[in-house]
Design a protein that fits this description.
It contains 21 helices and no strands.
Length: 480
């Protein structure tokens, strides 16, 4: 069951929200757990046992890790077993998919994202950051909570714990959640899905048949589609969580407005970045500090481990595994280069006794242009099945594949997709928040309060109409 399917929008969602508020407060967590398991079973009836086993085993690991009287060596051994179990479950399935083919081995829905949560749960208990939850129902709700089980956002147990037994109904939060859900549906159905025919045509053509302009148009459309597809899911997840009193973490912060690739990855898939920093980068970096390696070498090694993990996680289980590893290494090289340049500039300023100056408008434009160019060629890897396909597409971008400059399909799709393309480009930047801020500053609060509900209503009607008339298209990150 998907957030944009008709059965979810018109059956499961209203029944779930209505049922939640009909139940007494002390039973609401049990209701949400039951709803989450039903939601999961509707999409993965043959793999729900994997989720249940993961919940049960990690509940036991949590209790064992919380026993303070155990020797450190015993707790460390239990921690290693918990990591081996969770990582083995995830990468074991991905390895089987790689060996026997995706059509023969089906990975359980959301396995990656609830595995990230179970690993963080065990590590946080081991580091004495949170207590083990002795109520298995609450711990199970954390792992299986249906708004975030499929694609995140990846919340930490310490954050989830704050809300699990301290929630109440708040009208403003409920209204805000509904607006967020509407926004997510609009982003996914109206913007992201509208661009899929153009992307499929551009990436599916033979290199010699794909004109330069169609290649560039398809690539730009892909960056917009990838962003709004994933961000649309996140908006819906955060909105649904808000209806039940949970404050799920943000996952995106206008990443295309970044002026460095380092900044971009702090704004894109934020919760995965924070997870990798806490549970891969920091442990590796601290371990390196005990050696004779320099600070920069520790940084390079820890960063390499992060990007190797991210590339392997995305790619393992797919025939295009090498492409995803190259994708990770590509960004690792750029980020390392940015770190070298920034360190050199910092050392130069320190030597000359100068203070850091803010970037000039020209420098900001140049930095942003570099980021967009790097993303165009970096994210292109994300949609290619092989390095050969990637190379051929790059050649097409510069007219080096025996292809023409333009073709009739380009103009057709440019006209057909002008609205989602334009909207995607505009809304990729903080245009709306800035406009709202200026309107409020000019004393137009009353107009905003009147117009905003109308805009959201129109967005909802358009999204629902699209859901009725279009073929269901899965979210991009379901495959991971």
């Amino acid at each position: 069951m998907s957030f944009v399917s008709l059965e979810f929008i018109f059956i499961f969602f209203p029944l779930c929200v209505g049922g939640y508020y009909l139940f007494p407060k002390k039973f609401r967590n049990f209701f949400l757990l039951a709803a989450s398991l039903i939601f999961y079973a509707s999409g993965e009836p043959r793999r729900i046992y994997v989720l249940i086993v993961s919940i049960t085993v990690n509940y036991v690991f949590g209790l064992l890790l919380a026993k303070k009287y155990r020797k450190n060596s015993i707790r460390a051994a239990i921690l290693v077993l918990s990591i081996l179990f969770n990582a083995g479950l995830l990468f074991g399935y991905k390895a089987l998919m790689y060996m026997y083919g995706m059509e023969n081995v089906i990975m359980p829905l959301g396995l990656s994202f609830y595995t990230f949560r179970t690993i963080s749960y065990c590590l946080d208990i081991y580091w004495d950051m949170v207590p083990a939850n002795r109520n298995i129902a609450d711990q199970a709700l954390y792992i299986s909570f249906f708004p975030q089980i499929s694609m995140g956002p990846i919340s930490r147990y310490s954050d989830f714990l704050k809300d699990i037994n301290n929630r109440g109904f708040d009208a403003e939060s409920f209204y805000s959640g509904m607006r967020r859900i509407t926004l997510g549906l609009f982003k996914k159905l109206i913007i992201a899905d509208s661009l899929l025919p153009l992307i499929s045509l551009s990436f599916g053509m033979e290199p010699s048949s794909r004109s330069m302009t169609l290649a560039w148009l398809g690539l730009i459309a892909y960056l917009i589609q990838l962003y709004f597809d994933f961000m649309g899911y996140t908006d819906i997840a955060i909105g649904i969580g808000g209806l039940f009193g949970f404050k799920l973490p943000e996952n995106f912060n206008y990443p295309y407005a970044s002026t460095s690739i380092t900044e971009y990855w702090s704004r894109w898939h934020i919760t995965l970045g924070e997870w990798a920093r806490c549970y891969i980068y920091t442990p590796v970096f601290r371990a390196c500090q005990g050696s004779k390696l320099t600070q920069f070498s520790c940084y390079m090694l820890a960063s390499f481990c992060v990007w190797l993990f991210i590339g392997t996680w995305h790619g393992l289980g797919k025939a295009s595994m090498l492409v995803f590893i190259v994708h990770g290494f590509y960004y690792y090289i750029i980020i390392a280069g940015e770190r070298l340049i920034n360190d050199a500039r910092k050392a130069r300023r320190k030597k000359r006794g100068l203070k850091k100056k803010p970037k000039s408008p020209a420098e900001k434009i140049g930095s942003h242009a570099f980021v967009i160019a790097a993303l165009l060629f970096g994210q292109l890897l994300f949609n290619c099945d092989s390095m050969g396909q990637y190379g051929n597409y790059v050649l097409c971008l510069f007219g080096l594949a025996g292809n023409t400059f333009s073709q009739t399909e380009t103009l057709f799709y440019l006209k057909q997709d002008a609205i989602p393309l334009t909207a995607g480009i505009i809304f990729s930047f903080p245009v709306v928040p800035l406009a709202v801020k200026k309107l409020k500053a000019s004393g137009m609060d009353g107009v905003l309060r009147t117009v905003t509900p109308v805009i959201y209503l129109l967005m909802l009607v358009a999204s629902l109409a699209f859901a009725f008339t279009s073929t269901y298209k899965s979210f991009v990150y379901f495959q991971f």
